Amino acid sequence: MHRRSFVLATAACAAAGAARAQHAATHDTLPPAPSSKEPYARLQGGVPHHMTPEQEAQRVTDSPAPAGPAGRWEPRAALPIPRSEMAWATAAQGRMHVVGGYGEGAVNRDYHHIYDPKADRWLDGAPLPRGANHVAVAADGDRIYALGGFVEQNRRSDTNAYVYEIAANRWSAIAPLPRPRGAAAAVMQGGVLHLIGGASEPAAERASVGWHEVYDPKADRWSSAKPLPGARDHVGCVAHGGQIHVIGGRFNTFEYNTDLHHVYLPARDTWELRAPLPTARSGHGLVVYRGRFFAMGGEGGFLVGGVPRQARVFGQMESYDPVADSWQRHAPMPTPRHAVGAAVIGDWIYVAGGGAVLGGAVQSAVHEAFTLG
Question: Which CATH class is domain 3-22+34-371?
Answer without folding.
Answer: mainly beta
